[in-house]
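Regression test attached.
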Amino acid sequence: MPLAPLLLSDNLYNQRLYPSHTLVGDEEPAGFEAWHVATGRRTVGDRWQPATANAQHILTLTCDRIRWADTCILDRGHNLSGKEVVLECSDDNFTTTQIVADIVLPTVTQGGPITGAFGVLTEEGAWAVQFPARPASYWRLRIPAMGTGLLPQIVGLWLGLSYTPSGGALWLPWGEDSNTASFAETVSEWGWAGRGPIATPNDGALQIRLASEFDYELARYHLIEVFGSGRPMWICYDTAQADRLFLALRTKTRLGFEYQPGWWPRQGGLPYVESSPLRIT
Amino acid sequence: MSAIQPSDLLVRVTAKPRYGVLTRRLAPIARGGEQLQETFARADATPCATLFGWDGKLYTAAANKPRLDYSDGLVDAAGNKLSTIRFEGSRVNVVLWNRDLTNAAWVKTGGGGVTAAKDQTGLDGIASSCSRITANGANGTCLQAITLGSSARFQSVYLKRLVGTGNIDMTMDNGATWTTVLTGAAGATFTRVTIPTQTLANPTVGFRIVTNADSVAVDFVQNEGGVFQSSPIAVTTVAVTRAADSLTVPMPFGVQDLTMYVSMARPAHADAAGTIGSNPGIFALGTAANQVRGHANLGASRNLSLYIDSVTDCELDTAIPAGNPLTICWQLQNLTTGGKSRCDTGSGFGAFSSLASGFAAFNAQTMLVGSYAAGQELFGGLIDLMVVGGLRTLAECLAASNA
């Protein structure tokens, strides 16, 4: 069965990518300002967290023009599992409000589609949902009161238009769990090896063949310009099994869609490495 | 001719989510990728321009915000809902309290009388945002008198049957003319109904419920100047004016052989009776003389026209075809020696028009979309607009649009 990948490098919350956007939290205590949600840093120390417990909180994004989005991802480190999260958009700054998704986040990881009614909680705790693409000038994430003493914590937040490779598939060889071990090792004169702790971030190269030059319009934007410039990108190898979604960065090596023998018009090789993998003891 | 390549595309404005924005974008802002973006204006005094969202509910757009609207009920080949960029001219809805028929502006004593309650969920999905009227006897009426100079008026309303099967009639001339707008049993959704345009002063607008105890939900009663309806405008104490939509994009190219491809929802005026009173514009290259513009035609026969505005003008008229959406491919040849054009709306190219003359250059590096001048707005929804270098066929344009 063909896999249906989804790649998300776009993020309307990212004010470096969209300098004219404004992002405002209803409360932004010092050290926990709203802009922390789009830094791409995955440490829980880098987060938006309002000040008042057990109250509704809202993170409002004002775009410079109408912008489409079809995917929302909360990075791991949030504390919203089992809590209600509402994604809303508007064209009149929320005098009238369109509800895009109103979801109680799942509490456990289970294989499932990113388009599911509750989205999907990934193996490392991120939450993702894809919805029919919506255009709007204003977007907001609304988190109703969570309970006594509880405050929302959002480490990373992505909202944007996803990219599906031409033909809806990645070319082989590729696997979502492929990785390269990274560790320090010393080998004694007897051939015995002593190793330090092992890190195994996913890595590989996305192989994508385009079907027309028009395909390159989108591949260029999402993969060469946004991901290629060093911004992290969510890689979902199969939208039907989005629990294995992970965040990746480009490597230092060559990346591009090039004309090569055996295929017309272009094919791309996009090397990546998982961004800040979850440390598991 | 080979297929259209991305390098052939000069301008593209689209309601499809492809680029994430309304105009073609190939790189992030920091790399100059959004320099060729739209400038949009609609100077509403207070937000009153409406759109139907993806969920079918009615929402409001702020002033100077474009409207991506799902009211046309279109879907793409994969069955996904298609939005359109809504372009309308200025219109004034003169019906006060047009969602609240309990207000004293509505006189409910005619015939057997009518009772009104504001207890219905309206087009916006909000409970008790619109009204229900119920006949207390046969031929009960609910009317509002409006003081207004004489003009051609068009009247529309969203109705949903609640009880009964008797006729529901509508008038704008105080009952001198009643037009039945709703028959049959109760339904689950609102339907927009209209009555034929009338030229009159001081309209008295409203409803007659023919059968005692019948009841209907009523939302967005609208009486506006013109011969066809525009999007709903909410009104309370005073008439509300929705300003005209205006969208322009930079046009960084000169005169050459060009192809203009347009995909748009079938506009209401395509099937309206009477004289429209304007030429609903689809686009214009340049802004006045030495301009090429595509528009619908105001005449009694409904045409699509490509007009070359030069020393000697040239106009090519093509009948608006059946169907929804409309797809149009205009070829514009030899602009530097004047310009002539031909059109394909799905049944092949017709003959080239006669030659214009004296066309030296576009008079401005600006392209208007959804109009060709103030007062000449499309009054419809645009799906896709491409300006392509060279002479291309409709099939080639469709392939590029759907790529």
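Expected vs. actual: identical. The first strand of chain B starts at residue 9 and ends at 14.
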